[in-house]
Amino acid sequence: MEVRQVNACESKLKNIETRMWTEKYKPITPSDLVGNNGVISQLYEWLKDWDEVVLRGNKKQIPFRRG
């Protein structure tokens, strides 16, 4: 019984060690993101609108900006 538990733990460790670092350390929630706060907040706003815009097909109102 003890040997099976050790083998199961070893196989889990091998799976963790063979994953690419991008998968191993990927952010799970928006609060896991680190870096430029302006870009992170833009990404967060985009993610909040995802269901409404992409799945339901509604258009997001874009504020007018003089260029």
Protein topology:
Layout: H1 2-18, H2 21-24, H3 37-55
Order of helices and strands: HHH
Stretches where pLDDT is under 50 for at least 5 consecutive residues are: none
Mean pLDDT figure: 79
Q: How many separate domains?
A: 1
Helix/strand/pairing category: mainly alpha
Shape: elongated
The number of helices is 3
Q: Tell me what portion of residues adopts beta-strand conformation.
A: under 5%
- Taking all Cα atoms into account, the compactness measure Rg is 21 Å
What does this 3D model show about the protein?
This protein is mainly α and 67 residues long. The chain has one domain. Helices cover 60% and strands 0% of the residues. The chain contains 3 helices and no strands. The protein has helices spanning 2-18, 21-24, 37-55. The N and C termini lie far apart (71 Å). The mean pLDDT is 79.
Notable features of this structure?
67 residues; mainly alpha; 3 helices; 60% helix; elongated
Sum this structure up briefly:
This protein is mostly helical and 67 residues long. Helix content is 60%, strand content 0%.
